[in-house]
């Protein structure tokens, strides 16, 4: 396959799925890692895609743009992993936990499969699949119904009706953006409605959001900042933003910071 043909194939996949991983392209196209990275560089220089750590996504976000799960899964992977690892210490065995849809909550789910006797409620097909593959008989997984979104969330009247009948110990919420004015937001109106029901069903709200979410505003608000009992973010969040966020939420955990590493170890 010529370089031009290969780059066209890459571009078509990005447009179809919203994002690609370098490792997947190396395997599927049968070329080297370096070749794929050069192809992505060429396409990025032409403004046809956006290079991110480990892959590429479509460019040009807006308040109503909703990237697909594949597109978001290649963004801030190291930060999401650090956030998920820290947040897992907040979940006690035997508790009921709701997980919203998103790649950060999906990463977090991988850290929960070893927590015994959990009841997990989710509107995320991807999150449910993590627990299904683990196959633990002591964990109960409840997947609500609904209409599927680009981020593999199930939303709408069916999802809302199911969630309204439930009460959970903690909701772990992934968000598109967060700001002082708009709070925690999403670009999908139906997903916002479903997430608001999840917030109402939970005794505690834990929000997982990497530093790129600060200042990003989706079209619909899910909750105010001061409704969050805990927000877990990463060290990429600037100090002024940390101060503003910490002033609003119950507790701010910065994954990867020395102080929180000590705190988490003492909690174990």
From TrEMBL:
<dbReference type="Pfam" id="PF00455">
    <property type="entry name" value="DeoRC"/>
</dbReference>
<protein>
    <submittedName>
        <fullName>DeoR family transcriptional regulator</fullName>
    </submittedName>
</protein>
<dbReference type="InterPro" id="IPR050313">
    <property type="entry name" value="Carb_Metab_HTH_regulators"/>
</dbReference>
<keyword id="KW-0805">Transcription regulation</keyword>
<dbReference type="GO" id="GO:0003700">
    <property type="term" value="F:DNA-binding transcription factor activity"/>
</dbReference>
<feature type="domain" description="HTH deoR-type">
    <location>
        <begin position="3"/>
        <end position="58"/>
    </location>
</feature>
<dbReference type="InterPro" id="IPR036388">
    <property type="entry name" value="WH-like_DNA-bd_sf"/>
</dbReference>
<dbReference type="GO" id="GO:0003677">
    <property type="term" value="F:DNA binding"/>
</dbReference>
<dbReference type="InterPro" id="IPR014036">
    <property type="entry name" value="DeoR-like_C"/>
</dbReference>
<dbReference type="InterPro" id="IPR037171">
    <property type="entry name" value="NagB/RpiA_transferase-like"/>
</dbReference>
<keyword id="KW-0804">Transcription</keyword>
<dbReference type="InterPro" id="IPR001034">
    <property type="entry name" value="DeoR_HTH"/>
</dbReference>
<dbReference type="InterPro" id="IPR018356">
    <property type="entry name" value="Tscrpt_reg_HTH_DeoR_CS"/>
</dbReference>
<dbReference type="Pfam" id="PF08220">
    <property type="entry name" value="HTH_DeoR"/>
</dbReference>
<keyword id="KW-0238">DNA-binding</keyword>
<dbReference type="InterPro" id="IPR036390">
    <property type="entry name" value="WH_DNA-bd_sf"/>
</dbReference>
């Amino acid at each position: 396959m010529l370089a031009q043909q290969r780059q066209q194939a890459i571009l078509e996949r990005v447009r179809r799925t919203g994002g690609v991983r370098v490792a997947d392209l190396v395997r599927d196209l049968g070329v080297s890692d370096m070749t794929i990275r050069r192809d992505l560089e060429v396409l990025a220089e032409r403004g046809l895609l956006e290079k991110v750590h480990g892959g590429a996504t479509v460019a040009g976000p807006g308040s109503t743009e909703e990237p697909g799960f594949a597109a978001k899964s290649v963004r801030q992977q190291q930060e999401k992993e650090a956030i998920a690892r820290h947040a897992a210490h907040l979940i006690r065995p035997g508790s009921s936990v709701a997980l919203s849809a998103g790649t950060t909550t999906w990463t977090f789910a991988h850290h929960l499969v070893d927590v015994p006797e959990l009841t997990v409620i989710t509107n995320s097909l991807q999150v449910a699949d993590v627990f299904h593959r683990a196959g633990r008989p002591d964990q109960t997984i409840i997947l609500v119904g609904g209409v599927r979104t680009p981020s593999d969330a199930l939303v709408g009247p069916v999802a809302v009706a199911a969630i309204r009948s439930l009460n959970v110990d903690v909701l772990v919420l992934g968000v598109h953006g967060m700001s002082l004015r708009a709070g925690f937001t999403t670009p999908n109106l139906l997903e916002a409605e479903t997430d608001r029901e999840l917030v109402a069903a939970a005794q505690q709200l834990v929000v997982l959001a990497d530093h790129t979410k600060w200042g990003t505003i989706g079209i619909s608000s899910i909750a105010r900042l001061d409704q969050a009992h805990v927000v877990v973010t990463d060290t990429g969040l600037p100090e002024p933003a940390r101060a503003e966020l910490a002033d609003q939420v119950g507790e701010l955990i910065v994954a990867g910071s020395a102080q929180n590493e000590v705190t988490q170890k003492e909690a174990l």
